[in-house]
Structures are given as C-alpha cells and as structure tokens.
Specification:
mainly alpha, 2 domains, 11 helices, 0% strand
Length: 262
C-alpha cells in the first residue's frame, strides 16, 4: 500500500517536461537537444555479441553461487569450531571474483570502464555510503545506552512513537536490517506488542531522507533531464515527499492491520 500510494503521488507530482523551465532551458543547448531527441534505442533487431550473453550468464551464475553458499553455511566455515564467514563478506568476494571473470572472458574494454555513467555513479555512491556507515557505526557504539534511555519514556507513553525511533536510526545507519537489529531488542524489552512492531517495520526505510544512498545518487546522475535533483538546502530533494508518503502510508496500514489480525 505504501508503494502504491507513493506511485500515485509521483504520477501527479511535478510538471510535464514541456512545461518544466529547467528542462526547456537545457533544450536550448544543441548538443543536449540532439542527445535527448536521439536517445530512443531498441535492441529488438540488434544481434547481441556472444560476450554480452556470456556476461549475463556469469552474473546469474554468481547469484546462484551466493544462494548456494547461503543455504549451506558449512561451506563457508574455514576451520573446525569456527563460525561461518558472514554472508556480507561472501557476497563481496563472489561479486569481485565473478566480475574479474567477466573482464577476462568477455573482452571488456577496460580503458572505457571508468568513463561509463554507471561506474562514475557507483564509485561516488560507494564512497558516500562507506563514510556514512563508518560514522554511524562509531556513533551508535558509544551513544546506544543514552539513546535507549531517551526513547524509553516516549515509547512507554505512546507506543506508536517507536516508529520515529526506527526512522531516525535508519537515517543514520542506512540499513533496514541494522536498524531492526539495533532497536527491536529494545522494543521487546519495553514490552511493545507484536502488532505495533510489525506495523511499524516500514519505518526502518529512511534512506531517502538524506540523499546519500547509492541509488539516490545514481538516479540523479542518470536523469539527463535535470528534474531529479538534490536541492540547494540539501533536504529539498526529489525523493523526500514520495518517500514520506510511502513510509507514512505503509506504517498506518500496517498498524491498522496489526490491530485487526493480531
């Protein structure tokens, strides 16, 4: 329901390109106009090279291999009596290894890779997300005791305000799983009912609030029209209102269903 509400909101939001002053200003540039007018391409009649098909096969094989390692943790166990290697590390290792196979067997023009839009957007996003992750990890390691004390009184009085705590932590850590891991134990200790916890789980998605997540940065870079952007005041960006509509709607529906079904 949250995604549906967000989609409907986005459909009627903003101006059409022919009425958008920013886009029309860009269209005055002959090079930009030519790029936009000739950007419609199709691969229906195009015969793809074998290297393209091979790269897709290698990528799909990497996904199957990752699932296989996840299902059988004993394969990820290095020695007797040790814990399996975490899936986060395994995914990084497998993707890097299979990426190297693509470079070797698919005849990738390596010199052109750094000039691609995907590579540039990905590297910018990579640096941004790592910095945020390190900062938030340091912050919560030291601030969690005070944070637990601060939310206890609020949540005991108004259980639904636990959603604000989930949202705030998600903004900092940029991870739904990490947010749930940090705060669900706190909620259980406070005795919050399961219906409230389940209903408020969409509040763990707050990546959009600060536009530093890889997909946000990549979206801005991918959009040639200039209508997807991060504003002058940083928080007035293109993702704010759709994200808030989606999260608020999902939490409201989740709380209502939780009260009815649980």
């Amino acid at each position: 329901m949250g995604v549906l509400a967000m989609s409907v909101f986005s459909t009627f939001r903003g101006k059409e390109l022919e009425d958008d002053p920013e886009f029309q200003k860009r269209m005055q540039d002959p090079h930009f106009r030519e790029m936009i007018e000739n950007s419609t391409k199709t691969t229906l009649d195009e015969k793809l090279p074998f290297s393209a098909k091979l790269s897709v096969a290698i990528f799909l094989s990497s996904l199957v291999f990752i699932v296989f390692l996840a299902v059988f943790p004993e394969i990820r166990t290095v020695g007797e009596g040790t814990k399996p290697i975490s899936m986060g590390i395994v995914i990084q290792m497998v993707m890097l290894a299979f990426g190297a196979l693509m470079l070797i067997f698919c005849k990738v023009p390596v010199a052109k890779v750094p000039n691609g839009v995907v590579f540039k957007s990905g590297m910018v996003a990579c640096i941004a997300i790592f910095c945020i992750a390190w900062m938030s990890n340091t912050y919560f390691q030291h601030a969690m005791p005070e944070f637990k004390v601060a939310i206890t009184d609020m949540v005991n009085t108004y259980p639904w305000t636990f959603g604000f705590a989930l949202f705030a932590v998600s903004v900092d850590v940029n991870s739904q799983a990490a947010t749930a891991k940090i705060l669900i134990s706190v909620a259980l200790a406070l005795g919050l009912p399961a219906s409230v916890l389940i209903g408020l789980m969409p509040a763990t998605y707050a990546y959009f609030f600060i536009p530093n997540y890889p997909s946000d940065i990549a979206t801005v870079n991918f959009d040639p029209t200039g209508t997807t952007k991060i504003g002058k005041f940083y928080f007035n960006h293109s993702f704010m209102f759709p994200g808030l509509v989606g999260v608020i709607t999902a939490c409201a529906v989740g709380l209502a269903l939780g009260q009815i079904l649980l």
